[in-house]
Amino acid sequence: MKVGDNLALLTDLYEFTMSAGFQRALDREQRGVFDIFYRQVPDNGSFVIAAGLQQALEEIQNMHFAKEDIAYLRSLNIFDEEFLTYLQNFKNTCDIWAVPEGTPIFPREPLMTIRGPLMEAQLYETFLLNILNHQTLIASKARRITAAAAGLPVMEFGARRAQGPSSALFGARAAIIGGAVATSNVLAGKKFDIPVSGTMAHSWIEAFDSEIDAFNAWADIYPDNCSLLVDTYDILNSGVPNAIKTFQRLKGEGHSSFGIRIDSGDITSLSRQARKMLDEAGFPDAKITISNSLNEEIISSLLHQGAQIDALGVGEELITSSSSPVLSGVYKLAAVERDGELIPKIKLSASRGKLTLPGLKQVYRLYHKGTNEAFADLIALKDERLPIVIHAVTADPMAIKQNKLLNNFEARPLQTEVMNGTKLLTSTPDVFAIQKFSKQQLAELPEATQRRLNPDEFPVYITPQLYALQQAVISQYTENY
Q: How many CB atoms lie within 10 A of CB 337?
């Protein structure tokens, strides 16, 4: 599949069979409300960073079924011509609400809500989860890695380890949302206006008769930003000394931007000795970049040990979120509409952890009045007005302490309408503007909630009205079965 291909068939077969079934068994215009949310945070964290919304909306806007798609579906011999004709004329008529990209989101909070004909909204499940789960996962991992880097610039270097071209491309975008400053992926740089960065591979050094010849050749071609890979042979006895010789020549010619990259070995010891050698040679501003299978724990450990680092290139651990490679977002029906009435729906299970929240909802972030200090989130029914005092209930059905009195707060809604039929209601955002927004949102959360290890729980509550609705629907179904 090429990047930019129509994703109409990127779905599970049951989405099509259910959509066709809705057309035959229910009124074709029967409408429903679906929520996308997740229950568990990767890496035992407290929250995720929402990402992927822009691509998701563009794919919905672009969604259509070409002649060859219809022909393929016809060849399966399970769909009637009325349904295939519907697909042939397909266009989105759903209304969609979502939280902005870059927003920290907690378990059970609707990341996106889709309201429209059941047979239409059902078709979106798989590819929306594919997009939002992946990019939210990578943005969240990037947030953890950049937090571990403690302000040092992190460059995304993972294209060669990503699970395919699309994952490399959109993973790079998500990494920027999560806090990275650049990517090695040139296509991502072009498509999303991301700075691209990189030095050289060991093959450049090995292609010349000597390391100094390789360095000098590179310097002749790229004199104004000369960064040299120093670990091909011997970092301290060959690589750094030869780099210094090259820098001295360039400095004499009026150039001043220098750096080295270390891609192997004892990074702490080697970087400290390399820093000393560069400083003594008169290059205190020469940057030391490190790479080589870095992850958040290694980065944190290196900094704790006093490694001399100016920038980090992080590849496979970021682009695959290898320590926790799955975000299990789900797509659940929350209501159906009949004759203008919204009828709540719920998913029950033997496990209370899988209990869903019925109805059309809104998520609010609660702040101490007059501040930007968030202390909780609140899920409410979309049409309810929040009172000034709320006897809230925890959203986690597994929690021991269920009730909380909320007062003296300011409630700010997180979801906004982003799509009305084929009309996008958002502008195409600059990825660094999203990153800036995300950092602002993070700054409003308690520091203890942002810890990478053993984070404090950020409470998420539901309103009494939503709780009462949930319990009523539970009773309705448990009494009937």
A: 18
| Domain membership flag for residue 7 | no
Determine the longest span between alpha carbons in the chain, in angstroms.
Answer: 86
Please tell me the distance from the alpha carbon of residue 181 to that of residue 478, in angstroms, as a whole number: 52
Instruction: Find all residues with CB under 8 Å of 341, minimum gap 6, and list them.
Output: none
DSSP labels, 85-101? HHHHT-----EEEEPPT
Element (H, E) at 105: strand 104-105
Alpha-carbon dihedral sign for residues 30, 36, 38, 42:
positive
What is the residue whose two structure tokens read 């700010």? 412
What is the pTM assigned to this prediction?
A: 0.96
Tokens of 476: 């309705």
Predicted confidence (pLDDT) per residue in 246-271, tens digit = 999 999 999 999 999 999 999 999 99
The DSSP H or E segment spanning 217 is helix 211-221
Q: Which domain holds residue 267?
A: 148-319
**Does a structural domain hold residue 197?**
yes
Question: What CA–CA distance (Å, rounded) separates 162 from 201?
Answer: 19
In contact, 61 and 110? CB cutoff 8 Å: no
Residues 364 and 293 in one domain: no
With tokens 């950049």, the residue in question is 146
Task: Indicate if 315 and 192 belong to the same structural domain.
Answer: yes
User: The tokens 């659940």 sit on which residue?
Assistant: 332
Give how many domains the chain has, as a whole number: 2
Is residue 8 domain-resident?
Answer: no
Which residue carries 């309705």 as its tokens?
Answer: 476
Angle at 416 between CA 375 and CA 334, to 5 degrees: 85
- Rounded to an integer, what distance in angstroms lies between the CA atom of residue 116 and that of residue 30? 8
Handedness of CA 243, 247, 249, 255 (dihedral sign): positive
From 267, 296, 319, give the residue that closes a domain: 319
**Which pLDDT tens digit goes with each residue over 331-350?**
999 999 988 899 999 998 77
Residue 443 and residue 297 share a domain: no
Alpha helices in 5-124 (DSSP H): 13-25, 53-62, 67-75, 81-88, 118-121
Is residue 216 a part of any domain in this protein?
A: yes
Strand arrangement, sheet containing 403-406 = 403-406, 390-394, 460-462, 374-381, 361-368, 409-413
- Phi, psi angle pair for 463, to nearest 5°: -75, 160
Q: Is 84 exposed, middle or buried (0-12, 13-18, 19+ CB in 10 A)?
A: middle
Q: What is the pLDDT of residues 151-174, one digit of tens each?
A: 999 999 999 999 999 999 999 999
How far are the Cα atoms of 9, 45, 273, 362, 369 from residue 450, in angstroms, in the given order?
38, 8, 34, 24, 22
What torsion, rounded to 10 degrees, do the Cα atoms 13, 18, 19, 25 define? 150
CA distance 75 to 160: 37
